Amino acid sequence: MISPEQKIIIVGAGVFGLSTALWLARDGYQDITIFDRCAVDKNQYDPSNGCDGASADINKIFRATYGRKPHYQKLAMEARNMWLAWNEAIRKSKPDELPPCLAPGDKLLDICGVHHLADGPELLPRYASDLESMERTAKDFRKQQFRKASSTTCSDL
Ligand SMILES: Cc1cc2nc3c(=O)[nH]c(=O)nc-3n(C[C@H](O)[C@H](O)[C@H](O)COP(=O)(O)OP(=O)(O)OC[C@H]3O[C@@H](n4cnc5c(N)ncnc54)[C@H](O)[C@@H]3O)c2cc1C
Q1: Which end of the chain, N or C, is surrounded by fewer C-beta atoms within 10 Å?
Q2: Which residues approach ligand 1 with their CB closer than 6 A?
Q3: 3-state DSSP call for residue 20?
Q4: Degrees (nearest 5) of the Cα angle 31, 53, 7?
């Protein structure tokens, strides 16, 4: 039986390694060490400074619609709240409380929206499925989706 005092090592400090460590820590595990072949503490996950993990990038797209995979959508919505809480925590921090790569004005998640384009007036089946699923499972988010081609209402499917 694993107890919270036992040593845990995680190999790989990408988003999966870090989130594993975070959730173990939140569950009470106290002695977790993450190893990585890259000096991520020094390069601060900067791809222009030698960090080549998939998680290291200058931006990432946050996808919240997953059609017929509602468990992914649920996960995305839960994650969205956490990212926004981290934005708020960063905003309230003093500069010297943050890692060198972050300043209080930085956002980890920017809700800037997304614009999908298609070849013709019909929605791609994937987008139609996403909206239909959202209508059933996340009505408030569905109201934030707009179809520009509709002449009657831009929020209509
Ligand atoms: C070009 C690209 C664009 C993407 N865009 C998006 C996007 O917009 N939105 C999105 O959600 N997802 C995106 N993804 C997917 C997402 O980036 C990955 O699913 C996620 O980052 C994988 O995280 P990871 O922790 O598994 O792997 P990684 O981030 O690759 O982390 C693995 C870590 O393990 C370390 N490592 C490897 N081997 C060893 C070893 N032997 N010893 C010690 N350390 C080791 C590496 O240095 C690395 O830091 C994109 C992926 C790519 C490649």
Answers
A1: N
A2: 11-17, 35-38, 53-55, 60-61
A3: helix
A4: 10
